[in-house]
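Open question from group meeting: does this chain pack into something compact, or does most of it stay loose? Before anyone orders reagents, we agreed to write out a predicted structure and look at it together. Recording both the input and the output here so the notebook holds the full record.
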Amino acid sequence: MATTHIQDGAVQEAERTRIRRPPLYKVLLLNDDFTPMDFVVTVLQKYFGMNRERATQVMLQVHQEGMGMCGVFTKDIASTKVEQVISYARQHQHPLACVMEENE
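Structure tokens returned:
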């Protein structure tokens, strides 16, 4: 965005300010052999706002491919979601792993 200033009858244009978007991070769930599939679906609905159908698709991806993407967020939001999911899983005595990685 450039701003124009008039000073002593001459028009001066300020340098353009370039605003970079913050880096984004993927939040991923990792497969394990102990966390029930229904619990994973609940986590996806509760913390990522997915409907049951979409949550089931992601849960199956986690189960079949070893990981599934829950969403892409700014660093602070991604970090908070990872902490919330891990805390919720531990409260329910499940070893569900949730990680974040920079989105390329």
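Observations to bring back to the group:
The two ends are 26 Å apart (CA to CA).
The longest strand covers residues 67-74.
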